[in-house]
Write a sequence for this structure.
């Protein structure tokens, strides 16, 4: 076979393959266009859904739809150019199983992230406590939930932990109960202490009258003091402001009324042995 025949054969192969290649490229282009066009209709459907879907969940749904469209487009394109799609899918499945086993913890966080988005025990902007770590949720991603603590530290919590941990959501309700404990000396008049504390609470503009009026309770007789609980209700946004302000006002009111705040005391009895 001379060079002319080789070139002729190669050209015929290329010409025969070219339509398949062009068709495969058209499939990929169509897949790309579809991922861009389908965004708006899906968002519209999600907004009309009976089950509320927030922006983060919508983003995940769109990402999954894009992955599915691209996967189908690639498989169809490979099939058009004559690639052994079945064999490739078998290899991909085997590799995927091995990878899944190696990154099972990450997959657990991914699955947990999807569950969290739709069960919605919390949302961005909520102030929560996760196993002793408190902060405001800034982002809920596929693998992690991000918190900003009160001292402006950013914390990434794996979503698998968010699913298994006990979470206290302080923003779930509009109002919050505030219990402040104050200690006074045993020589102080109980009725006077209760009156001073109650007057402060009733005259504070951040203390709510609903769901309950403020009250003062004798909590316990401690070793060196009598402890009272001042119980109030306030808006979530006012919790810390009320805490700090009330502590300051109580100290000033105790000083004005001669109510002592005791130090821890210990009585030591010394016995001398007679010679």
């Amino acid at each position: 076979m001379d060079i002319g025949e080789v070139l002729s054969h190669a050209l015929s192969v290329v010409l025969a393959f070219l339509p398949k290649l062009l068709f495969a490229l058209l499939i990929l282009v169509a897949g790309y266009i579809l991922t861009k066009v389908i965004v708006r209709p899906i968002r519209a459907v999600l907004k009309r859904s009976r089950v509320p879907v927030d922006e983060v969940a919508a983003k995940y749904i769109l990402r999954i739809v894009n992955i599915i469209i691209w996967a189908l487009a690639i498989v169809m394109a490979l099939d058009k150019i004559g690639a052994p799609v079945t064999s490739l899918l078998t290899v991909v499945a085997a590799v995927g199983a091995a990878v899944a086993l190696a990154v099972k913890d990450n997959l657990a966080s991914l699955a947990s992230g999807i569950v969290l988005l739709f069960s919605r025990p919390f949302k961005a902007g909520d102030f929560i406590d996760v196993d002793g770590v408190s902060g405001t949720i800034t982002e809920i991603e596929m693998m992690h939930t991000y918190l900003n603590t009160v001292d402006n530290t950013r914390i990434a919590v794996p979503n698998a932990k968010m699913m298994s941990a006990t979470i206290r959501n302080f923003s779930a309700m509009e109002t919050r109960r505030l219990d402040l404990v104050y200690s006074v000396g045993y020589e102080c008049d109980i009725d006077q202490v209760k009156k001073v504390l109650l007057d402060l609470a009733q005259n504070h503009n951040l203390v709510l009258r609903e769901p309950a009026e403020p009250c003062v309770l004798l909590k316990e007789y401690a070793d060196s003091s009598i402890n009272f609980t001042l119980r109030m209700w306030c808006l979530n946004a006012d919790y810390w402001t009320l805490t700090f302000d009330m502590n300051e006002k109580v100290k000033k009111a105790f000083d004005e009324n001669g109510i002592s705040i005791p130090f821890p005391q210990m009585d030591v009895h010394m016995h001398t042995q007679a010679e």
User: Anything to note?
Assistant: The mean pLDDT is 79.
